[in-house]
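Box 3.1 A note on notation
Throughout this textbook, protein chains are presented in two layers. The first layer is the amino acid sequence; the second is a token string describing backbone geometry. Keep the layers aligned when reading.
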Amino acid sequence: MSMSTLVRLETHLHTSEVSQCGRIPAREMIRRYHAAGYGAVVVTDHFLPGRFCCRAAREAFLTGYRLAAQEGEALGLTVLPGMELRFAGGDEDFLVYGLTEQDIIERLPDAVCEDGLPAFHALCRARGWLIYQAHPFRPHLRAMPAQDLDGVETRNCNPRHDSHNDLAAAYAAKWGLRTLCGSDAHQPEDVAAGGILVPEEVLTPAGLSQYLAHTPDPAFILP
């Protein structure tokens, strides 16, 4: 029986084309990850309230992902779509996995950011998507109720924030939530600071979502 090939997957990165806090263009970001030995990334640009309520705006949201995917195809690195979603009335952020381009353009409710976390989590369950709260214990943020989450980013590797990863890990353990590690890459020094190892054969939106659903504690890539 052949063994699965494990690849390095970045779970959390931003492109300068879409995320205002991003400082690296999508194509350059992919070149940097390829040079660092990663086989796949999920582009998780910020999906913010009031910005992506129509089809044209969602097409624009996918700009970073599409440029990254073009560069990834040229280099042999898999690029998957995702998002870091924020709901109206709060500063908490949520990483979403399992989405396709069509899902983002056509299957998200226009008022997804206004409908709130419980409604979106119910939609995720119906569609086979997963939602993880990103860096829930940074100052001035709130850890959301476990029943409204699939998991928690328990290791956020961004060097400019104190994400209190120990508290995130304890929260996940207390409530039986899935765990995740990501670089939260915005700037050159953030690239390839974290991620997870996954089998090569799961590198589709649905494949990754299913893998994470059945692997609550994937192997982390740590500095």
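The mean pLDDT is 96. The helical segments are 26-35, 55-61, 63-75, 101-107, 112-115, 117-127, 165-175, 205-214.
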